[in-house]
Amino acid sequence: MAKDRLPDKLAVILHADVAGSTHLVQQDEHLAHERIQDSFHRFGDTIEKYRGTILELRGDALLAEFERASDAVSATLAFQSDQAYYLSRLKDELKPNIRVGIAMGEVVIGDGTVTGAGVVLAQRVEQLADPGSLCITAALHEALPNRMPFDLESIGEQSLKGFDEPVRVYRVELRPGESIPPPQLESQLKSSQKSWQLKTTVAVIVVVIAIGTTYLFKSTTPIEEAASIERMAFPLPDKPSIAVLPFNNMSDDPQQDFFADGMTEDLITDISKISSLFVIARNSVFAYKDKAVKVRQVAEELGVRYVMEGSVRRVGNQVRINAQLIDATTGGHIWAERYDGSLNDVFEMQDKITEKIVVALSLTLGDQQEIQVETSNTEAYDAYLRGWERYRLGTPEDIAKSVAYFEQAIRLDPDFARAHSAVAAAHWIIVLNGWSRSIDLPLFQAREESRLTLKKAMEQPSALTYQIASERAAYFQRKPDKALAEAERAITLDANDPASHLAMATALLKAKKPDEAEKSVRTAMRLDPHSPASYFTKLGQIQYAMGQYEKAAETLETAIKRNPEDDWTFIYLAATYGQLGHEDEATRAVEKANALRAKSGWGALTMQTVGTHRDMGGRRYYFKWFSDYKPLREGLRKAGVMPEVNWSSLINSGSSGFEIQGARTIDIKTAKALYERGVPFISMHFSWVQGRIPGAHYLDMFYYEFNEVRLAEIVSNAQEVVIYASQSNNRTAAQAVARSVTWGFKKVNYFRDGLDGWKAAGYPVETDKK
């Protein structure tokens, strides 16, 4: 219609389509159309924010007009950054890569259509662009202000269908380290309806308050639906809060996941040290790894205002990091950056990202919070990241493999403090969980390695180092005051690390302050909303200590749902149901605990398991969380757990030493004869450290490694066995013999003279560690 026709005009035209759309539709027509439509819808939103006008949207193509070349290019790069992240989180290969061409030329708009040389030129240029990239004409190049942060690479004179003269075409990318220019504020207001205008004005005011007027124009427009504060699972903290999503591995090699994950963790570690910032823990953000989630969902589930997302591409020695910070409450970008460099530049790039966050959120760093690069050796850093990847898997085998990587990192850089802390943590996990046997490492050696590596790590302590020191003081040294002091140091260094607060909870419980311990656990859970089972187990133990048995049962049941393989959770649950008088539930919990203990090579649950005044020389190592073991023993007794047979009554002390009913006491001559016959010898802890009778087995009384299951792995109850210690007439060896008798072993010999007598007789001794 003539009245709808506009005169010819010169315009900046953007043409976009989906590369390989036919192939995508052939894979899954419905899903392909859905994703293409969603992509163009988001692209359209971005175009409008940059003062663009969508002229046509048909199938797999989009046509738009801009007044300024800089707006067209900025809108395209902003969308493509968002699209790259969106595609990286899709698990399948149905990914709509959108290529864009921008040209300047005459167009005619009328009768609902757009025609003219400018449209055709933009379409031809777009076909020269790679999937996910942008190409422009020389006219656009000339129209772009020099101040714009774009890199333009000429791809030469191109002969385009329908044009007589060749056209010079340029490929456009954002310059490394620069931000995509935000849209002008007036364009946001112009392209919106009144209701949208009001929302935007409110969002701008919030940004001004949060990050200062200096960065008003750094916040870009919403790229997706804003998060609802009312729908958040947790109230927003009273300071800026952030979740750093796992950076996507954009490398061609999927085995580089460890590097991308390591970069994410390092960034979380660095910003966690900023006390004026609330940072969600690694465990919770990594729950979103390889999942296509929206910023809104993350913010609402974790209860944070800001979300960071990004990607890492590593090719040989070259690294590219893309990162963007988003205000989830408005959906707007605070900033988006790209960093390029070699592996040697990785630490500098990490520092720049941290500095960007600090500046953007108007944070301040105290002297103790200055971020320090711990190593400049990229090979050491690589080994550390590989080790940390194994450490995070958390199995005995993976922990053992992590030690090898950490030790490699330390060999490459002996001053790499984080590697020293990591290897100390790995050895501590092995000792705490009783995994030495699973990895063929003598328990005494595991304990010694744990002590020595912690001592070394304390020369340059981190929050992790203090966490280990606190738990060691609480569990093994029975020093709650020391445990409290070490946990406080850990929190001072990293108040955002939930493990520091868990260490404090343990120390407080040992100090008989369960109310304060509960607060520490709750803090850890807020920092780590997708809390692992261990958090709930600890909370249940604290609730038990406070006599809140109904709450404890509910909490421990939650822990079991998250990890049904922890025998100690079932032990505490059995005691809880015992206190509540729920006999059937208590019995099932005891049976499950015993099944798991048998699977791990431990003896059946008895009262002896949780400690008595005679047990283990007064060392109640396995009474993990309680400062007073009596309530737990009471609950287990009510749950039907029977006391262990009174093996101590079998031990008689005479003038010639110990005699054990049901066993035979032997001297050096008899011991030598049995040794020559091939009878198995079992050494107690101290004799193994000082040396051992060649071929002797090692079972440690002090950590319940000596039990009927382990003993049965060495001999049957009808076979002969010799048990000894280092000194003659050793009570520990006598206790082991007495226990063996109560377990039904019929031919147990107590070697009274021990290793000292064996040495004195001139018989050989092994001293090398196995």
* Class by SSE composition: alpha/beta
Count, helices: 29
Report the helical percentage: 40-55%
Radius of gyration: 34 Å
So, the CATH homologous superfamily of the largest domain?
ABC-type transport auxiliary lipoprotein component
Number of strands: 21
CATH topology of the largest domain: Rossmann fold
The residue-averaged pLDDT reads 83
| CATH architecture term of the largest domain | 3-Layer(aba) Sandwich
CATH class of the largest domain: Alpha Beta
What portion of the residues fall into strands of 2 or more residues?
15-25%
Domain unit count: 4
Biggest sheet character: 8 strands, mixed
Termini gap: 93 Å
The residue ranges in which pLDDT falls below 50 over 5 or more consecutive positions are 1-7, 185-223, 367-372, 612-625
The rough form would be described as: elongated
Can you offer a commentary on this structure?
- It is a single chain.
- The chain folds into four domains: about 1-175, Alpha-Beta Plaits; about 190-370, Rossmann fold, CATH 3.40.50.10610; about 530-645, Alpha Horseshoe (Serine Threonine Protein Phosphatase 5, Tetratricopeptide repeat), CATH 1.25.40; about 645-760, Rhodanese-like domain (Oxidized Rhodanese, domain 1, 3-Layer(aba) Sandwich), CATH 3.40.250.10.
- It is about 45% helix and about 15% strand.
- Strands 1, 2, 3, 4, 5, 6, 7 and 8 form an eight-stranded mixed sheet that branches. Strands 9, 10, 11, 12, 13 and 14 form a six-stranded mixed sheet that branches. The protein has a five-stranded parallel sheet with strand order 17-21-20-18-19.
- Helix 13 runs antiparallel to helix 14, helix 16 runs antiparallel to helix 17 (about 480-495) and helix 21 (about 550-560) runs antiparallel to helix 22 (about 565-580).
- The model is unreliable at about 1-5, about 185-225, about 365-370 and about 610-625 (pLDDT under 50).
